[in-house]
Amino acid sequence: MKHVIALDVGGTGMKAALVGADGALLHQARRATGRERGPDAVVESILGFAAELRAHGERHFGEPASAAGIAVPGIVDAERGLAVYAANLGWRNVPLRDLLGERLYGVPVALGHDVRTGGLAEGRLGAGRGADRFLFVPLGTGIAGAIGIDGRVEAGAHGFAGEIGHIVVRPGGTPCPCGQRGCLERYASASAVSAAWAEASGDPKADAADCAQAVRSGDPRAQAVWQEAVDAFADGLVTALTLLDPRTLIIGGGLAEAGETLFTPLRTAVERRVTFQKLPSIVPAALGDTAGCLGAGLLAWDVLDTTPTKPEETTVTATLLGARDETSCGSATAGARPAKTDPQPKTGKEPVVLAGAKVVLPTGIVDDGRVIVDGTRIAGSAPDDATRVDLRGHWLVPGFVDIHNHGGGGASFTSGTVDDILKGVHTHRLHGTTTIVASTVTGDMDVLAQRAGLLSELAEQGDLAGIHFEGPFISPCRKGAHSEELLRHPDPAEVRKLIDAARGQARMVTLATELPGGIDSVRLLAEHGVIAAIGHTDATYEQTVEAIEAGATVATHLYNAMPVLGHRAPGPIAALLEDERITVELINDGTHLHPASLQLAFRHAGADRVALITDAMDAAGFGDGRYMLGPLEVEVSEGVARLVEGGSIAGSTLTLDRAFKRAVTVDGLSVEDVVAAISATPARLLGLYDRVGSLEPGKDADLVILDADFALKGVMRRGEWVVEPQLG
């Protein structure tokens, strides 16, 4: 399948994707730049990462990437392919285009400035889509700009076009490192606002986000700081508007996250200043920090001269926007656009029509529905002579997504070999789980870091959807089946060690946020795009609220390993159920939860905030007996796993097909709610809803066939039968 490599290099991390000819993000990954080891190490990290991406494409899509696009910070000479200078990476005059081309065996490479590349994506795919002239201005540590003209971004004769941050708006004012005084970015960047508010508030830790919050609260000091920044920004923008006459002005970066707190006074200030100039639409950026990676993909296709013409461009745009994902180039949310009907990759297989079943779609249940599989994905149409599979009397639902799973089939994700891990993955696929996150248990930090390296390789290959670290940062009071001797406080430095060891594949970390370092660790995880999950916790209601405000978004197996819900001491359960930012995990095996507790969670949180999980250990799909869960011995009897010493429940032997059936037939939940909780909600949480989690054209052909009694009859993953239906 033809594809390109897209790389977005930042100061500390890199985001990357393999992008198909139809715009689909086929594979996504993250890496650290390694800048602490010097500029040469950064370059080698980039080249090595690109080589890994090439190998992944060749292994999984039948051919290596046809081209590569890379966006880097600092001064860039795109015409000569030079990364001229980047203060945060320490390099000078690096022939990055040639080095990357050589490492990728001579494929064409396009090099771009990070802001201009992000502007390219915003112009074609985001807030500037459809505008023939736009100006993209991100407000971050500094201020830069991207000038968009008819689908391309103007670099200027010497590569410096768009440096709006160095327009002098206050002559003789604050010195700027560029050598001038009174530059715009010294007054209106996020760092400038942070510095001004820290001084005005007397809090050296205060930042621009705090200032925006204080503005909304009516603090006159904050309002004065904010208005000064808005006025300076408006002065600079009017100069830019006078010179460039854009139709759309797109504002991005950290300061734009203030929303209308910024945009309402800014529009007013600009409108007051214009005279003969035409006032453009002033809008927030749409792609956030995904823009650089998406833009790099566009650069790569452009260098191949295969950028779609106007009638096709809508398809590419829709797919890329729908594919925004937290794991790498973006983060899909409940508000992300659904995947569109796109040209399907050719695999040599004929399309298959699965017809006659009750099909569960995001919009509801369709009787006598059909799903068309073409290659690895779901298609919108099929030829009249396509193979037809009669599924009358059956249900057709999306493949299951398990975000909390320790193993199965006799194999452990925590201690097994690569073959063991793949055996565990396959065991759960046989039971309908087509997307799985590998969970670890508490262990020695060095052992966990080593395990993360192994699991990350399988995640990069597409066998896993990432890594979940459950422990060692949990409460000894609520340790469950974790070794107390190996527990530790959530020191942010140690949390960071695990994130780095996972090489961009860390998806979630469970921690007891009330412990020392807990809140700072939650903030660290949120900053790195890793889910902070509250679990194995002895927190109070108030402590749990504090963790949610810091950025926690998941409750690890709600009810289990946490204080009970009390009328005087509601504990974490009440805080987790009531907050719409929290997704709650539930283990529906009949052992961990009473049906009334499960129903309470569904009624209070709703299916769009519930993720049904297995929390499975080795015995899932394998049978009773003795097993090891980390360093602890477990006895499984009649399908229930308990520690040999102490008798605590030790994970489950659940598979998601059993959880599905029980939810409908025992707990009385609707099929639509169960599908949401077992597929769509966890897919959104992982940022994968553009690819999995529902049966829609353009998504992976991951699906499960159930009979009228909700027993599993067939499983397909990416267009291949894992369990071929025997329908008689």
From TrEMBL:
Protein's organism? Streptomyces ureilyticus
Gene from which the chain derives: nagA
Q: Amidohydrolase-related domain spans which residues? A: 396-722
The family annotation for this protein states:
Belongs to the metallo-dependent hydrolases superfamily. NagA family.
Gene3D superfamilies for this protein: 3.30.420.40, Metal-dependent hydrolases, Urease, subunit C, domain 1
Keywords noted in UniProt: Carbohydrate metabolism, Hydrolase, Metal-binding
From the UniProt entry, list the residue stretches annotated as the region Disordered. Answer: 327-349
This protein's record includes keyword Chloroplast:
no
- What this protein is called in its record is N-acetylglucosamine-6-phosphate deacetylase
Source organism phylogeny? Bacteria, Bacillati, Actinomycetota, Actinomycetes, Kitasatosporales
The GO terms this record gives for MF are: N-acetylglucosamine-6-phosphate deacetylase activity
The EC designation for this entry is 3.5.1.25
